[in-house]
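Recap from last week: sequence in, structure out.
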Amino acid sequence: MEERPKIPPKGKLLGIDFGTVRIGIAICDPDRIIASPYEILVRKSEAKDLKYLANLAQQERIVGFVLGLPLHLNGDLSEKAQEAIHFGDLLAKETSLPVEYMDERFTSVEAEHFLLEAGLTRKKRKERIDKVAAQILLSVYLERGGIGTTVFESLD
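Predicted structure tokens:
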């Protein structure tokens, strides 16, 4: 894997929970203290999704992206993770901004748990789960001091 540009130490980031049907989006403040759920993008086409995220990045003055990687439980790259890396490469080209990756194996489960505890109906949970999952992966990235998943290999 080629050397990727690093995300600068300050500035807003977008967290992305990449899915086939929806993309969950979270955003953090410029000082990177808190990550908040932002929205859910219903997928249209790769080109339209990339254009939308590029426009959003420009509007919000984003300095980098943190993209979730759905790895297998043993840490191996899943087919979905390979698709996410491909999308991240295209996003970096479209925006000229750095993209880093975070292991997102349990973010949707954790998001579902939070939404259940909040007492939301099944319908309301479904409407929010992707952006809450994006918030969780961005929060973990921030808590780790801006260190993403850099080695994509099995934990065995």
